[in-house]
Amino acid sequence: MDNRIGHYNFTVEPFSEDYTGQLTWESMGNHLLRCASLHAGRLGLGYDSMIRNRHIWVLSRLVVELNRMPRTWESYTLNTWISALYRQFTDRLYSITAPDGSAYGYAYTVWALIDMDTRQPLDLSRLPGEGLTGAVVADRPFPVKGPGRIRVKSHTALRRRPTFYSDIDINGHVNSIRYIEMILDLFPKQTFDHYAPQRVELAYCSETYCGEELDFFVDQADPLCYHIEARKTDGTTAVRAAVRFRPLECTQTDFPATLLAAGPSAAQDQ
Question: What is the CATH number that goes with domain 1-144?
Fold first, then answer.
């Protein structure tokens, strides 16, 4: 077994699922961040050692692409490794596997190490000792494309949302995974009756603090893909995102004009 790769086991327990019986995106996202912290700690660069030096790992980009989400009582393993190391960023990849070895999906993340006082990224090539250099696994197969370009041209906000106590993490700003919930909440329940998010991509641009308001702007890239930008009221972009849906097996192939409106059988549901 390659000691440079971390393996972390989970089971979908009751109350960690959404109304469809699938693990919530919040739970999956938080598990991804937790495993990154555990693996970095094993390399001597985890939260505890970094915080003593007033340094902290910050997520810059996140891509999660799933064949399907685990369901209640299903087990899964998050396998994580560092695939590339740059001066100010490092790529961390994940495979999400079932006990039989099949893939639930994959995740691609980009991280920076930030000085908490200057808020500037540190040079990762100058970490103590070997740093991350000896941990890089550059040749492990990975079938998912990394972060792409996200453009939002809309000037009309679909929704304005304040930020609250429960949005804020230990770093004092909106939690990285909380943005996923905010973005998926732009779509009505009827959408999730017929479609599931297949790929969620986020580019984190600036920090949002408790009490600040976010305006969400949305462009439809194609029938099943949406580009989203969350901007603070001063016009600063907090996060850009892309969400691609896949139809569930029971869904007809004629897609509605927009998934932001009610799903294909909403008329019968009313």
Answer: 3.10.129.10
Better-scored residue on pLDDT, 128 or 238: 238
Task: List the 213-222 sheet strands across, edge first.
Answer: 6-11, 75-85, 90-97, 103-115, 55-66, 195-204, 237-247, 225-232, 213-222, 159-162
Q: Where are the alpha helices (DSSP H) in 99-188?
A: 178-184
pLDDT, position 44: 84
**pLDDT tens-digit readout, 231-269:** 999 999 999 999 999 999 876 667 788 888 754 444 333
User: What residues does each domain of the chain span?
Assistant: 1-144, 148-270
Which single residue is written with the structure tokens 């308001």? 213
pLDDT tens across 170-196, in order? 889 999 999 999 999 999 999 999 999
Domains 1-144 and 148-270 share a fold: yes
Intra-chain end-to-end CA distance of the chain, in Å: 54
**Range 148-270 classified under CATH 3.40.50.720:** no
For residue 78, which amino acid is it? L
- In this prediction the pTM is 0.92
Number of neighbouring beta carbons within 10 Å of residue 150:
17
| Residue 72 identity (one-letter amino acid) | T
Alpha carbon distance 45, 37 (integer Å):
9
**Secondary element (H or E) of residue 221:** strand 213-222
What is the rounded CA–CA span in Å between residue 205 and residue 58?
11
Residue labelled with tokens 């937790």: 34
Query: Among 241, 111, 135, 265, which residue's Cα sits nearest to residue 188?
Result: 265
Strand partners of residue 219 = 227
Residues 6+ apart with CB under 8 A from 100: none
